[in-house]
Amino acid sequence: MAHVPSSPFDLDAFLARPLTARIATDGPTVRPVWFLWEERAFWVLTGPWTRLFHRVRDDPRVALAVDVCDTGTGLVRQVTARGRAELLPFDVPRGRRKLVRYLGPDETSWDPRFVHYLHDDPAERGTAWLRLAPASLTALDLSYSAAPGAQPAGIHG
């Protein structure tokens, strides 16, 4: 991985939040994805039932963006990553960590679609990880002081 310049905020804490990233492949296509940030890499659950899996298999160059923009508080942060993704075998412990981050620790309350990822045979289903260890990683804090009483975009009194 390329040298990551110092971030204007705690990059690991920001990427530990259950935010949605957008990943782009050649085509171009962009899609929202849930991710796990571990070992200085983004981990995205995928498999042969998705176009993402096939696009990355055919051309591993991807770009990924994670951002927040809260007009009520003025918090605006973004992380962008680029590099060559790889498709790796799925492992249940990492899968559980990723799903807990978005769905909470009570697996019994999860939608059955997500539970299946942890209990079906990954080899039979084809479940895999898309791993992006960024060649470039940029973190920007574009936050500003919000006006008192400001309302988030789309909300009108």
Shape: globular
Instruction: Report the count of strand segments.
Output: 9
Strand order of the largest sheet: 2-1-5-6-9
Main sheet makeup: 5 strands, antiparallel
Termini separation = 48 Å
State the low-pLDDT regions, or none. none
Number of helices: 5
Mean pLDDT: 88
Query: In angstroms, what is the radius of gyration?
Result: 17 Å
Give the % helix.
10-25%
- Percentage of residues in DSSP E strands: 35-45%
User: SSE order, as H and E?
Assistant: HEEEEHEEEHHHEE
By helix and strand content, what is the structural category? alpha+beta
Short description:
This protein has 157 residues and is an alpha+beta fold. It has helices at residues 11-16, 51-58, 92-103, 112-119, 122-125; strands at 20-25, 29-34, 36-38, 41-46, 61-70, 75-84, 86-89, 128-132, 136-141.
Reconstruct the topology from this structure.
Layout (H helix, E strand, L loop, with lengths): L10 H6 L3 E6 L3 E6 L1 E3 L2 E6 L4 H8 L2 E10 L4 E10 L1 E4 L2 H12 L8 H8 L2 H4 L2 E5 L3 E6 L16
Antiparallel strand pairs: 1-2, 1-5, 3-4, 4-8, 5-6, 6-9, 7-8
Helix pairs in contact: 3-4
Task: Write up this protein.
With 157 residues, the chain is an alpha+beta fold. It has helices at 11-16, 51-58, 92-103, 112-119, 122-125; strands at residues 20-25, 29-34, 36-38, 41-46, 61-70, 75-84, 86-89, 128-132, 136-141. The strands form two sheets. The chain has a five-stranded antiparallel beta sheet. The protein has a four-stranded antiparallel beta sheet with strand order 3-4-8-7, with helices on both faces. α3 (92-103) runs antiparallel to α4 (112-119). It is globular.
